[in-house]
Design brief:
The chain is built from 14 helices and no strands. With 301 residues, the protein is an all-alpha fold. The longest helix has 26 residues. The radius of gyration is 37 Å and the shape is elongated. It starts with a helix and ends with a helix.
Amino acid sequence: MPISKGSFAIALASIAVAISCYGAFFKSAPLVAHQLDTEILQQSVKDLPKNSHDSPPSITELHNKISALQRQVANLNLQNPTANKVQNTDEFKELVLAVLVEKEQEEVEKMREENPLYGFYADLPQDYELRIKSEPEYAKKVTAQLREQILNPNLADIDRLAALSQLQMNMYILNKSKMPEYDFEVVDNILDLAENSTDDKFKIQAIEVTTQSPVLDYRLAERFTSLLKQDSNDYIRRLAGQGLLAQYYQAQDSQNEYSKQIAQHILSLYQNTSDSTVKSVLNDMMGNESLLEEMRKHTEG
């Protein structure tokens, strides 16, 4: 009896899928694959249910037929597991390396997106640290370029802050406590960016970097004091308190006069403020009465 067109089309589609799988699997043995394809086609057509137009093959019968073909493919895979191995080892290695490079690039882009401040790390040459240490002219050139970037008003705020972060990193790499290029003007510019920014995340990052500055200058103490008194963000106020105390601690080793001046400033702020937050921050920063007593001694000369 004749087979319905719909049933025949579905069956042939199933057979074609199987033949395609065999063809791809047996690339290294085309004659064998052709013989198998022919046998499967003949057997599949032979086994196709001979239903009439009035009684087309059921969905279950067609599904069973496809499942049987899939099992045959799986069995052949088990019998010839090496048929699909990559023939060219060098090409395979190149493919793996390409995937690794792509993955690394994705990680770099992810880092840039999540924290653009430290995106410059990805652009540094692999021997950057060694060159900074071993090539004075290279270190001097990079440092000068970073200072120019920080002071360049045409650059994006985040790029200027990143330049300061890199300048600070270079100072640590060289095991220095100060650098002539890392001066008040540099820090002052970044604080200006922070105070004028509407991006709270950028503002916090900028102030975090400046509170770690090695620059000793009473103008910085005044700026930190202003932030401590007036900023609406409690974390930024704590950062400002940290910046004030950092000025005091750093002054102990290098500037006796400034040490006295900053001690007087902090004591006056602590004793005369009516702002409970300012008082609380300074209490937390100083930790105990012993530091207050130490500051009093500095103010007395």
